[in-house]
Amino acid sequence: MRVDHMALSAASLLGAAVLGALSSEERRVLERKLKKERKKEERKRLREAGVAMAQSSLARRSGAQLALDYLCGWAQKRENWRFQKTRQTWLLLHMYDCDEVPDEHFPALLAYLEGLRGRARELTVQKAEALMRELDEEGPGADPRLLEKTQRIRQVLQLLS
Description:
Layout: H1 10-18, H2 24-49, H3 63-75, H4 85-94, H5 106-114, H6 118-138, H7 144-160
């Protein structure tokens, strides 16, 4: 690894000199800032050299895929599964949409909801009841997607109420 002394900024030199006199939290914050600065300089250098930094959208997994992977990991009870608030939130927001949460994943989602506690459980029940009232007011529709959504709402209410 070659160190480019020209790329070192005054801030990073000052940071290296002061690093020993800082608390562990201050040191961590400073190191993160320095790392960010180094990345920024590297991107600038690559951009000037004409190297395109194309990030494939396929390389990044969508929120839907991440949430479904999270759910499958929970269902399989892997040792490395851990709670992730953003994944749970995504699942709770999209659980009635058959396109977002396919039918093959819905039973696992119901099992996951069974363990829901506290405010998340209360809000899920409240939202399901509000959606049910809204759908009842609209009356029976011929839209099969609406029927699937209604069916899912009923299952969630039956489970959590």
